[in-house]
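Next comes one such specimen:
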Amino acid sequence: MNMVDIITKKRDGEELTPEEIRFFIENYVKDRIPDYQASALLMAIYFRGLSRAETFALTEAMEFSGDVEDLSDLPGVKVDKHSTGGVGDKTTLVVAPVAAAAGVTVAKMSGRGLGFTGGTADKLEAIPGFRTRLEPAEFHRQLEELGLAVITQTGSITPADKKIYALRDVTGTVESPGLIASSIMSKKLAAGSDGIVLDVKCGSGALLKDLAEAENMADLMIDIGRKAGRKMVAVISDMSQPLGRAVGNALEVEEAVQVLKGGGPEDLRQLCLELAGEMIWIGGRAESFEEGKETARQVLSDGRALEKFRQMVRRQGGDDRIIEEPERMGSSRYSRDVLAGRTGFIAETDTREIGRASQHLGAGRLRKEDEIDFTAGIRMHVRIGDFVKEGDVLATLYGADSRRLEEAETILEAAIRISAEPAAPPKLIQKIIQ
């Protein structure tokens, strides 16, 4: 068995066997397969796709490519949450402390930005001192004592996915259903939680462009989770415009804190309550989803969720003063307003391009080795359906390079379409699969 034969087989549209998939994963983790061959296979998978059997085999191979957490000695149902990726999606920063404040043990393993979409780990690392890497024993101890931990993969947990994830980000192979599902579910299963709530995005700012694709992805991941004995729920949410107003790491942390304080954008608050309600329900802290959602409202309004977030930040080495003083996360050297070129209604936003503009400003990576500029990003001042006059501010850009701001402005101007006719805002929650 060798990589050239495996690459050729998938290139020609044939189905790989579980043994061939395990051969690739085991040897890639051991650095016996170079990145150029792994990239070739990923591109073949991107174009040819993965069958359900191949996706199951890839998920299992990546799950067991390293250590698997055992949280069985912790009381209650341990719950994780994951988003398939979006622009401005900072829900974990709100949802995880809300569910934990309601008594659910939240063992959350998060990823970094992928292509034009943001990553929870990058957002948390915008907080000075925050450690997203905890060794398994420390992760376990924090869950036992605090009931909440949000971490990235350690070198010992799903190392295959960690390598492939970084490679997909810079080889144009992100938007592959089988690769997305196996990446997400291998991490979720290896993290040891009993239940998983999925936020499956669809729309121009998602990896999945329409509801049908999102439903297929949700069904696939739920099937993988149930086969592994997990409780599964999927919420399909709209990503045809950025979630909330902030796009970019420190900006999104600040906005998430606003929600935890009882404010923030209404769409972000609505989705967070939906996801937290599901987590509280499958975590056994409510008799129904409706009761779980009401509990989420209570812990958000009485300050318990904010305090849980503060405790997590402090416990993981972060400066919790950013809650009252967000400027401690730093500020960009340059800013630039993007103005409306005509009077009318915001009819459409190409959210992928908005995410690409943020990535271009430094909030995401264009190359595998790129460093994130935590202060870079975009504040959106308009939503679909809003009326604007010529010269009104549509968005404000932030970055460390004035030339990049000019280029991002061009991208953003083309991404926002203004029409003479009113436009209806999209429905945020498209479907729930319980």
